[in-house]
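Dear support,

I submitted the protein below through the web form. The confirmation email said the job was done, but the results page showed an empty box. After a refresh the structure appeared. I'm attaching both so you can tell me whether what I see now is the final result or a partial one.
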Amino acid sequence: MMWPGLAPNLQAATDAPEASPEPAVETIEVTSRRLDIVAEGQQRVVIAPDDFPVLRIDAALASVPGVTLFRRADSLTANPTIQGVSLRGIGANAAGRVLVTLDGVPLNDPFGGWVYWSALAPEAIESVAVLKGGSAGAYGAQALAGTIALTSRPIGETSAYASAEYGSFDTTRFTAGGVLAGDGVGVRVDAMTFDTDGPFLIDEESRGPVDSRAASDADAVSLALEADLSETVKLFTSARYYREERDNGFELAVNDTEALDLSTRLLYAGADYDAELTLYYRSRDFSNIFVAALEGRTVERPVLDQFDVPGEGLGLLARVKWDQIEVGVDARRLSGGTNELFRNLGAGFTRLREASGDQWIIGSYIETYGETDRLSWSASLRGDAYRVFDGIRQEFDLENAGALLLDSPFEDRSGFLATGRLGGEARLTDAIRLSGAAYRSWRLPTINELYRPFRVVNDITEANADLEPEKLWGVEATLSYQPVTNFRASATVFRTWLEDGVGNITIGFGPGVFPVAGFVPAGGSLRQRDNIDLTITDGVELSAEAELGNGLSGYARYLFADVRISDFDANTALEGLTPPQTPRHSVTFGVRYALRGVSLAADGQFLSNAFNDDLNTQRLGSLFVVNVGVDVPISAGITLYGRVENLFDRRVVSNVSAFGLETLARPQFGRIGIRADF
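What the results page shows now:
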């Protein structure tokens, strides 16, 4: 086994699309189980989580600079609502600016756009491909900054596996699964259960009696069926269920999630053309309580109880491909809302708020490919019609028999956006390749961003029903060098222009009463989501990977991202500032040594200083963590493994409140486990 991210980048794909050229900058495997979303000139990194056990898939993504959740916390301690993904320092956003798919089907939450990483067992994932830059092909409406394409393990021969591990904070995790294969049909089952007491989220000297650990209890199960309906038609169908109960640092600050995902795909592979029809359904039931700590953190008071936050999504993709042309149409319908209690002055909640809305997006696209002996190219054009409708916000006075205080229906809106991508690669020599791309992509703000406010302790963020879609223009060029099969290096330069990027913009500080949100307490802040006219990112990416022989391999990657708000007519004071959670320098590295079946590995991540707020007053220091691990085979099919994350127990700050209280993340975490494959 080789280091995650190394082997897939140095090996050619075995099932490349028929119209694609010979292996280019980095090539990912495309099989009948997943959607082909590879475009010429699109930089990509492929990692294989099973090569080095990770607790969560988002932990494996940390090996790619610029891939980040909203804050520096990972999914072990982060609230699910900030687990959306961003790429290349374009600007962090809690909803995320990246499309995440599993076997071609979107995973992004239909209400909020975030991803439930704790629902994905790494043992059930074969590979993860990070495709950088906006996409305009299938599902292009959400792939603003790029795509993360997960591929589940294939339904092959009959087999089974099981694993068990124990770690810090009394953490237990068990997984099991297997494949039952017959003549032309196969079934795969995967199950996982996870429980942890979790770490504290603030320093010991800052804690009070009300502070508790970030505990989590989660279960997930999935069932997949693959069948040959005829010599030319295959059926793939899957069902996944997930539930989690999580504590967020206070005894009363809890959130619960229940999720169901269903999908069905029909594939036709004929002599003259290929065709695909995919249908999917997603349902989410989420609840969340926000708490304020009072009287020197000796008393906790619920300040916002979002007791019912449902979300539901329906979607389809239909496409046909022949010769060097592909055409397709995809559509999705999203709905959701929040039901919440607020305004607790000490004797219980006195107000009820209901806010909800619906969206639909219908898009069509055309792609074409071409190549010569030394040149390959691709072009895509896409058009999307969208509608935001049935938006409403109502508030009721519970102290006055539920009297209606606010009844604010929001204006229905619709629009049309055209996007596209042009990319190509020139093979200058057998070892040197030059590739590049230009693109325009877009993202419709989520129902969460439009209608759901939230509160973290005394810091309040309001929704904004008038948000416009985000648009991203980008150009990039890459020079890659691979003189031999066991070494590769590349350098990429890029610039992006983000129009109408959604950010949390500061309105004022408490104590005080504000028309948008009402009373803001002392030490608190008020922000509201808003469209920033233009944010520009200039960047450089460097990467080197090598197999050094005698079982030794390694990689190093670097991202420089100079991000600044260029134009913001509504708040010119922010022009020239850096969006929150966007470090200028990001470095990742890894080394692995394998001898007689035993594997030793270490990887690290460095992030330079960043700001936590839009005003650039709350500075987050640099981050440097090192992780180590070992795999030891103890008999045929049985492996013992261990891992320590944040080996040197470096302090990682993920958030700073208006009055300076720091939230911690990614503590030192050790675990040991055993896995058996049958």
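Response: this is the final, complete result; the empty box was a page-load delay. The first strand starts at residue 44 and ends at 47.
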